[in-house]
Amino acid sequence: MKYETKMATILSITFGIAFFDRNAVNFLVPFIAPDLGLTNTQIGLLSSALSLTWAISGYALGALSDATGRRKIFLLISIFVFSCCSFLSGLATSFMMLLAARLLMGLSEGPMMPVSHAMVVKEVSPERRGLYMGFVQNFGSNLLGSFAAPVVLVALAEMFNWRVAFFISGVPGLVAAFFIWKYIREPAAQKKLFPKKSETEGGAPAQKKMNTFQLFRYRNIVLCGLISILSVSYLVIAWAFMPIFFVQSRGFEPSTMSWLMGTLGISATVCAFLVPGLSDRFGRKPILVLFSFIGVICPLSALYFDGPVVMLAALIFIGWALNGTFPVFMATVPAETVPAGYVATVMGLIMAIGEIIGGFSAPAIAGWAADQYSLQAPLFIQTGCAIASGLLALGLKETAPAKVGNPAPSPA
Predict the structure, then answer these.
(1) pLDDT, tens digit, 9 for 90 and up, residues 92-125
(2) Per the domain annotation, does 329 fall within a domain?
(3) How many domains is the chain partitioned into structurally?
(4) Is residue 251 one of the residues assigned to a domain?
């Protein structure tokens, strides 16, 4: 097996384990809420808290990884800490204890994606960058975090209780840490980003260092940040409120709910290859536009389709294809827009914007709307996010090498 394929597989499965732990609360909330007496607002805040600290650490530690040139150590520390946080979640006896565990889990998981993508950029050719980034970000996270998580965790909660489900979900991360330590190498050190004039070829002027605000000179970074807000909102609202909507509003049994939510994982696992691969061939922009609009099918079918559950699962499968756009706007387009020395920084920035504004605010707003109106309200918000994402994608500047070659990044 080529090293780049082995590396991508291990990173993808590891990120999947992280998402398994991240989503555990959402799928177990029908069991946790009556035990701890949670309101819909508190359910939303549990998702918001993790998104906030995920965003802060993703940007800060992604930038630190760029500055130090170290990648592997950040991954190992992250995996160990988030595994411990899963055990802590199972020990929670109140909303505040569970909230604290989620905050710490977000801090530990934040740098995983920007650091992993920086390793992919270093090891994979530009022509296959979209496919590999999609595989790393979406395959494991959706196979494990979206498909396996609801099925396995709900089964464990019904067989034992929700605390045991948390305890068991913390074990795989420790196994993943071993595989990264054993089989993933530290990428070769990059040349100095900002060498002294005497160190540049022929004494040519060195590249001037950019700060965070200067990254927003690139139109694509601004648009990707806005798309990130809306798309992250779309996902976290679905994870936080679709399980309880299916059980309380639609009257499905928890086991039926778990398989419907598992359908999201199957869809996103397929789209981990499909959407980024299509963007390599047809361009980033048209694929982002198309699949963002397709995303409205998921919440609208959950709200209004009254036919067989199998058909509802099929509609959800199609609508959740929006998930496949995440590595495109969060990693591939930014990596093809800014200079190479800012890859982990800009990916952490896009992720942070989405997680802080979308991931933190959206579940809280959706939870408040659910308390004020009904559990249908979060799904209407989710629909609006998909439409707005597609409209914003229309303004992107194409970056796919198959369409524009591989030009040096320049501000729009």
Answers:
(1) 888 999 999 888 888 888 788 778 877 887 777 7
(2) yes
(3) 1
(4) yes
